[in-house]
Structures are given as C-alpha cells and as structure tokens.
Design brief:
Radius of gyration: 23 Å
InterPro entries: KdpC
Subcellular location: Cell membrane
Low-confidence stretches: none
Pfam families: KdpC (PF02669)
Oligomer: single chain
Number of helices: 6
Keywords: ATP-binding, Cell membrane, Ion transport, Membrane, Nucleotide-binding, Potassium, Potassium transport, Transmembrane, Transmembrane helix, Transport
Distance between the termini: 78 Å
Helix content: 40-55%
Number of domains: 2
Subunit structure: The system is composed of three essential subunits: KdpA, KdpB and KdpC.
Strand content: 5-15%
Order of helices and strands: HHEEHEHHEEH
C-alpha cells in the first residue's frame, strides 16, 4: 500500500509547492518588474502623492463643477460590479433612462449622449466618449467660471486613442487636471 500512497502524496506536495507557491511568486515578480504600475492597480496620485483612485475603475463625481462618469448599476462598487441585467425591452430600464435623460437634458445642447444614460457591462468603466464630455462642458464651465475653450483644450489633452474604437477620456484623470487648472486660475498652489 505504501508503494502507491507515498508517490501519490509526494506528487500532491510537489504540485502544491509548484502551483501554490512557486508559480504565483514567479508571476508576481515578473509583473512587478515588467509592469509595476499595472501590477499595483494603475493607481492615480495627486500632487501630494495621495491615491485618488485607479485608472481602471470609475468613481462617482457629483456637483456641477465636475465631469460625471457613466452611470453604474453597482454604485461604483467593485465587489458588486456588473450590469443591471435589465433587457432593452424592460420597462424599468426605460423608466430609469427616461428619468436620467430628463435630469440631464438641456435644449441648447440637444439630445443627451447615450454614454451618460447607459451603464457599461462592468458598471465601472472609467472612460467617457468625447461627445459625452462635450455635453457636460457648459455646466462645468459655468460652475468653475472657466472659458469653454479652456475645458475643450483640457479634454483634448486628456484624450486617449485605444487600438480599437473611438477616442475616450479617463474621467478621474480629467477631473484631476480640472482641479489643477482651477487652482492655477485661482493663483493658489500653482506650479509652472
């Protein structure tokens, strides 16, 4: 019996050490050396070095002085991330979108962009289309007392072109640049 049991137990121990310890340590080491930013969560820091969020996860911004991200079915919580699972034919989805469109609609701007009314599949998409950001410019400009042209330039500077798909902007990074711009406009804590 020991002729069968000992090799089996030895193999279980060996595979546990390889797959449970050595392999994860090797992958972690390679990731830390080759991709340290991504391996540590793609964190975004402010000028004081404080973590403000991740470039990979949306977070809520409220108030007229900020660019708002897409809606989130999970309230921007990573634990419960996911879509609402409401079908396009579901009356509850239609009612929510209609209510959101009613709150965001401005006659002078035309229809509300779809990205401001619908959630992404994960509910945590940190990027917005240029159209969705342009729709928010008048509100942010009025709240911050900044020229519309300056906000358009800020969006252009923050625009990313993915390999596939239209240009997008990370809302957290844009709002950080907006805060820096506002500090500079107020002549407090402005460098350069």
């Amino acid at each position: 019996m020991t002729t069968y049991l000992r090799p089996a137990l030895s193999l279980v121990v060996l595979m546990t050490v390889i797959t449970g310890a050595l392999y994860p340590l090797a992958v972690t080491a390679v990731a830390q050396v080759a991709f340290p930013t991504q391996a540590n969560g793609s964190l975004i820091h402010d000028e004081q070095g404080q973590v403000r969020g991740s470039a990979l996860i949306a977070q809520p911004f409220t108030g007229d002085g900020w660019f708002h991200p897409r809606p989130s079915a999970a309230a921007y919580a990573t634990v419960a991330s996911g879509a609402s699972n409401l079908a396009p034919s579901n009356p509850a989805l239609a009612e929510r979108v209609k209510a959101d469109a009613g709150m965001l609609y401005r006659a002078e701007l035309g229809p509300v962009p779809q990205a401001l009314l619908t959630t992404s599949a994960s509910g945590l998409d940190p990027h917005l289309s240029l159209q969705a950001l342009a729709y928010q410019i008048p509100r942010v400009a009025a709240a911050r007392k900044l020229p519309v042209e300056r906000l358009q330039g800020l969006i252009e500077e923050a625009t990313l072109q993915p390999l596939i798909g239209p240009p997008v902007v990370n809302v957290l990074a844009l709002n950080q640049a907006l805060e820096q711009l506002t500090r500079c406009a107020d002549h407090r804590n402005c460098e350069g």
